[in-house]
Amino acid sequence: MNNLRQLIAWLLLALVAVVGAGAAALGVAQAPDNVPLSQAVVNTQRASNYSEVVSESTPQGTQTDFLVYQAPDKLGGYIQSGNRRTYVYVIGNKEYQSITVTANTPTKQLVFYEQPSQGAVTLDPAHNYLRYAQRPKNAKQSGSTYTFSLTEGGQVGTFVFTVSGKYISAMTLTVKTASVQLAISMVGTSPPVALPAGAKVVAAPTSPGTPTG
Fold first, then answer.
1. Could you give the C-alpha distances from 144 to 28, 45, 132, 168, in angstroms and in order?
2. Domain CATH for 182
3. CA distance 157 to 173
4. Most C-beta atoms within 10 A of its C-beta, which of 71, 126, 188, 212?
5. Within a domain: 22
6. Which positions ≥6 away from 78 have C-beta within 8 Å?
7. Is the CB of residue 206 less than 8 Å from the CB of residue 212?
8. DSSP for 12-74?
9. pLDDT in tens, 143-202
10. Residue 211 domain flag
């Protein structure tokens, strides 16, 4: 799951300590058909499931993740860069990661390596990014869109969140020349998370010198 962990961590590392205690009052009228930003965040985090597309752009290249989160402990999909995919799943206290294959490889041919997991909520991009929208200090609202910035260690991260009805539907985070775009859809109607039928599961290889019991 290293790729998934890196996806979540690469922009958040500089911003982890910046959010202070207490929620800021937005002080502006809400769009008539949408709930406030803070409530949309809570509703999304508490949803039974949702689909998400996470697009990462850095000077080193681009990567797109297609995932489904299923409460309380499942996350799965694939990470794509060019024509290559790595399939990743979290089911309960286990993580499963495939070897990287071409995009047209049948999923029944996949081999997954199993290892202990940190948990679906910990690794879910939406849960990680949405928590920054719960306590913005300087959020500005324009219709269904909220914008705010956070600064840490001389780096400024600009967040843009979009509310659609009761849920968050999109987020963009920009830091210098890098950015992440998150799209959330099919809230409550996403397909169940399960390893692809026919795929093989093996234990993750141990590092040299690692005790095997």
1. 11, 18, 17, 10
2. 2.50.20
3. 6
4. 126
5. no
6. 65, 66, 85, 86, 87, 88
7. yes
8. HGGGTT-PPSSPPP--SPPPTTS--HHHHHHHHHT-SEEEEEEEEEETTEEEEEEEEEETTTE
9. 999 999 987 777 888 999 999 999 999 999 999 889 999 999 999 999 999 999 999 999
10. no
